[in-house]
């Protein structure tokens, strides 16, 4: 099986990310250890939720910003993040120069490395990146050893313990464990806590662990549901289709297939639809972007955990503004945005209100 890597008792992932709680601080853990961050975070959340207030100083030069995003996927999270970030920067009256590089998630590490190196050579002020694959940590540690660029890590809200006091400028995103726990509670309720299920991961790495393995751990601790199959799909729809087909061939009695991303969810939906199993075997979205919400409205998806998406772009812009105003101490270490639970059958007016809130800049 070349294109799909079947997980055998989760050995490989558990080896790489064993004792994840020893490697990362969860949001509440970090805030408890750093009480001053609670006040900083509260004030910062207010900045993000309120209307923009223009930069209070005169810039001497444009701010140089580089984005290296795993945005080549069906999910519109990364594209919306860029749009909301830039629109907020303009509202804040910040003069900037932005270069963005979009790659495939988890599998274009060499291209990402080249782009990061170029950002350093170009004397970039702010670098926006992510942490997923294990090699990302090596790149990040090299950047953290320098004064420039200031690093914003997106799609991660759990500070890395071994970096100690030498943390990135900002962690920003929507907490994977919190989102996955919402979905787990839904499945436990729907299944009466009994039955079989399968899990479709993305690539081997941080996001898959936090969304997938932590989901399984929660299920084991809070239900009698039994995991019978799991696959890595590299966040690729076609691989998700193949994995779903194999799951259904081997386990016709699964109650649900847990999908770890938008692209994976849409792959599951295609197979369930083809086999006339829509609504009979449950599945979920993860993130609540446009394609997922369309599937919800068509009764193809049962539930998604919807990020209030544009808040993360606004948070990055507000952090840049505070730094320019020499108020860096007012930037929290973590900004973790809110979720909304969207289920099949939601009232159209209620869904539109959520869209207006989540996509306030990118709609």
User: How many helix segments?
Assistant: 14
Identify low-pLDDT runs: 1-18
Beta content comes to 15-25%
Would you tell me the overall average pLDDT? 90
| DSSP, total strands | 13
Classified in CATH, the superfamily of the largest domain is: Response regulator
- CATH domain class name of the largest domain: Alpha Beta
Distance between the first and last residues' Cα: 41 Å
Rg result: 20 Å
Please give the CATH architecture of the largest domain.
3-Layer(aba) Sandwich
Order of helices and strands: EHHHHEHEHEHEEHEHEHEHEHEHEEH
Oligomer: single chain
The neighbouring-strand order within the major sheet is 3-2-4-5-6-12
Portion of residues within helices:
40-55%
What's the shape? Answer: globular
The computed structural class is alpha/beta
Q: Quickly count the domains.
A: 2
Largest sheet: 6 strands, parallel
**What is CATH's topology name of the largest domain?**
Rossmann fold
Q: Could you walk me through the main structural features you see in this protein, from its secondary elements to its overall organization?
A:
Helix 11 (262-274) links the parallel strand 9 and strand 10. The protein is built from 14 helices and 13 strands. The chain has helices at residues 11-16, 20-23, 27-33, 35-49, 77-91, 109-121, 134-144, 176-190, 206-222, 237-250, 262-274, 290-297, 310-324, 348-358; strands at residues 5-6, 63-69, 96-102, 126-130, 150-154, 170-173, 196-201, 226-232, 254-259, 282-283, 303-307, 334-336, 339-343. A six-stranded parallel β-sheet has the order 3-2-4-5-6-12, sandwiched between helices. It has a five-stranded mixed β-sheet with strand order 1-8-7-9-10, with helices on both faces. A two-stranded antiparallel sheet has the order 11-13. Helix 8 (176-190) runs parallel beside helix 9 (206-222). The chain has 363 residues and is an alpha/beta fold. The protein has two domains: 5-13 and 177-307 and 344-353, Rossmann fold, CATH 3.40.50; 25-175 and 309-338, Rossmann fold (3-Layer(aba) Sandwich), CATH 3.40.50.
């Amino acid at each position: 099986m070349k294109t799909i890597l079947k997980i055998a008792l989760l050995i490989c992932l558990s080896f790489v990310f064993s004792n994840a709680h020893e490697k990362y601080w969860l949001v509440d853990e970090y805030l408890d250890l750093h009480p001053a961050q609670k006040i900083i975070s509260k004030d910062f959340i207010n900045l993000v939720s309120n209307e923009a207030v223009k930069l209070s100083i005169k810039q001497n030069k444009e701010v140089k910003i580089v984005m290296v995003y795993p945005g080549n996927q069906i999910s519109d999270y990364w594209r919306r993040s860029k749009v909301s970030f830039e629109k907020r920067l303009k509202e804040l009256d910040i003069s900037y120069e932005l270069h963005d590089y979009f790659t495939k998630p988890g599998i274009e590490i060499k291209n990402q490395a080249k782009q990061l190196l170029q950002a350093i050579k170009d004397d970039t002020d702010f670098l926006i990146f992510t942490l997923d694959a294990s090699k990302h940590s090596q790149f990040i540690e090299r950047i953290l050893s320098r004064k420039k660029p200031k690093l914003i890590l997106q799609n991660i809200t759990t500070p890395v313990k071994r970096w100690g006091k030498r943390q990135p400028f900002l962690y920003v995103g929507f907490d994977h464990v919190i989102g996955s726990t919402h979905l787990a509670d839904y499945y436990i309720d729907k299944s009466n806590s009994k039955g079989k299920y399968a899990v479709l991961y993305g690539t081997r790495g941080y996001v898959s662990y936090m969304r997938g393995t932590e989901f399984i751990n929660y299920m084991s601790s809070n239900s009698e549901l039994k995991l019978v199959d799991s696959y890595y799909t590299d966040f690729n729809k076609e691989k998700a289709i193949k994995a779903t087909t194999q799951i259904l061939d081997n386990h016709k009695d699964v109650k649900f297939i847990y999908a770890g991303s938008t692209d994976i969810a849409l792959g599951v939906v295609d197979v369930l639809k083809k086999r006339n199993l829509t609504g009979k075997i449950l599945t979920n979205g993860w993130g609540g972007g446009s394609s997922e919400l369309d599937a919800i409205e068509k009764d193809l998806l049962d539930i998604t955990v919807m990020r209030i998406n544009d808040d993360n772009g606004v948070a990055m812009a507000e952090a840049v503004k505070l730094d320019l105003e020499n108020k860096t101490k007012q930037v929290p270490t973590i900004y973790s945005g809110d979720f909304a639970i969207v289920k099949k059958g939601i009232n159209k007016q209620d869904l539109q209100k959520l869209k207006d809130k989540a996509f306030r800049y990118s709609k």
